[in-house]
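Posted in: Structural Biology > Protein-Ligand Complexes

Title: Requesting predicted complex, flavin mononucleotide in pocket

I'd be grateful if someone could produce the 3D structure tokens for the following input. Sequence and ligand are given below.
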Amino acid sequence: MRVLAVNGSPREHGNTYLMLKRVCDRLAGAGMEIDEINLHLKNIAPCGACMICVQTKDGQCHGENDAANELIDRTRRADIILLGSPVYFGSLTGQMKAYMDRVGYVSRQGDNFLRRKIGAAVVPARRAGQLFTFAELNMWFLINGMIVPGSSYWNIGFGRREGEVSEDAEAMATLDELAENILWLAGKVGA
Ligand SMILES: Cc1cc2nc3c(=O)[nH]c(=O)nc-3n(C[C@H](O)[C@H](O)[C@H](O)COP(=O)(O)O)c2cc1C
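-- Reply #1 --
Done. Output follows.
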């Protein structure tokens, strides 16, 4: 079983990374294979609406010559997709939006490779905007036919400086419960 953890924060080892890691460590401990992507380290432009994928339906992006097809291929190979984004001005980061548009559109115009994968989102912020951002990420899972496990609370955390979210005990407990529910669900669906 393969997990893809997509980090939309430009801080490579910031709070989003720590939230994703909390879940991934538990999944890895249960034998799952973890693939990690930090979008900031990849060259991925926003969708240019060239619509070539609508014509070709070949599961590839033919727009910009950047990392999109690598990200598409790594997403396709995953059974479980974790998306993490910090809140930037009440919303998700530009890097994450580019990933969602480029990968999601190619999936929908092709063979719907996202369909029935398991998806879960994690969102840190200093003060506000986590729930809106969490909803944005979950709407991407849902429109793409993915299966979304819950937890004991929404998968959000509080923290500003790098590492601060680890001090949010309720967030850490929520992520632990999320990991348990992902494992339970993966067992049921045979992911
Ligand atoms: C450009 C920018 C915009 C931000 N906007 C918000 C915001 O709207 N609400 C908030 O609570 N925190 C905001 N923050 C703070 C981050 O969400 C917070 O520091 C978060 O923990 C960063 O996660 P990271 O370490 O994974 O990058 C913003 C930070 C930056 C750099």
